[in-house]
């Protein structure tokens, strides 16, 4: 399979995801009143973290090293954040934007993994890794709880987008439409989770439940 899968559609999805994740990283540093250097570092690590881990796992060249725009988008996003009040990004607006980056990145990750000969199930997992690991790294460095530790639907939305991208490749369907549908479906699930606070059931220890009933 051709390894050059970044068509114009995926190129735009890629840069959108990078920019949104970079913004969330820069805002973490801004809210901690860090320097611009720290803000740029958080923007870069958050923007490229998931894709970097994916590329290392599938044996691909790390995508942003040879790309002329990725680092520029991250640092430009940090510069934008530096000159805007953090209150502009309060509320759910950033959550909805993050959801778009999450699902776009999940599709990109799954499609790229397939193009490198990764089987379908691991390719789906590579999509999830691409969409979530940057935020995990950001939260770990900042010493704050990660969103994946909450029951709210987040990883599930990434998994839905990645799964649809892989299934569409296997049928096969026209790639551009598959990717758009996959991003839209995952984003709709994530947006619904944000709006209605949808969550999967949390684990309950059966033994503890039995003891409490006795």
From TrEMBL:
Membrane topology of this protein: Multi-pass membrane protein
Keywords: Cell membrane, Membrane, Transmembrane, Transmembrane helix
TM annotation in the entry: 12-29, 36-53, 65-84, 121-141, 153-171, 177-196
Keyword set includes Hydrolase: no
Residues of the Glycine transporter domain: 12-84, 96-167
Top-level taxon of origin: Bacteria
Pfam families cross-referenced by the UniProt entry: Gly_transporter (PF03458)
Subcellular locations according to the entry: Cell membrane
UniProt keyword Oxidoreductase present: no
Family: Belongs to the UPF0126 family.
UniProt-recorded name of the protein: Trimeric intracellular cation channel family protein
Species this chain originates from: Qipengyuania benthica
């Amino acid at each position: 399979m051709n390894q050059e899968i970044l068509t114009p559609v995926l190129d735009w999805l890629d840069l959108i995801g990078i920019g949104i994740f970079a913004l969330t990283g820069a805002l973490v540093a801004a809210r901690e009143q860090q320097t611009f250097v720290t803000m740029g570092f958080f923007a870069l690590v958050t923007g490229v973290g998931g894709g970097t881990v994916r590329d290392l796992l599938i044996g691909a060249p790390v995508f942003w090293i040879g790309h002329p725009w990725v680092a520029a988008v991250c640092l430009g996003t940090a510069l934008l954040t530096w000159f805007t009040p953090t209150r502009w990004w309060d509320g759910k607006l950033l959550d909805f934007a993050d959801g778009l980056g999450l699902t776009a990145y999940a599709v990109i990750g799954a499609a790229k993994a397939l193009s490198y000969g990764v089987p379908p199930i691991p390719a789906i997992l590579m999509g999830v890794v691409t969409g979530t690991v940057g935020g995990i790294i950001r939260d770990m460095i900042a010493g704050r709880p990660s969103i994946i530790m909450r029951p709210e639907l987040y990883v599930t939305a990434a998994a839905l987008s990645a799964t649809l991208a892989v299934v569409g490749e296997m049928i096969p369907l026209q790639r551009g439409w598959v990717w758009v549908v996959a991003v839209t479906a995952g984003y709709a699930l994530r947006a619904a989770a944000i709006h209605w606070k949808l969550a999967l059931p949390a684990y309950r220890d059966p033994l503890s439940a039995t003891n409490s009933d006795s």
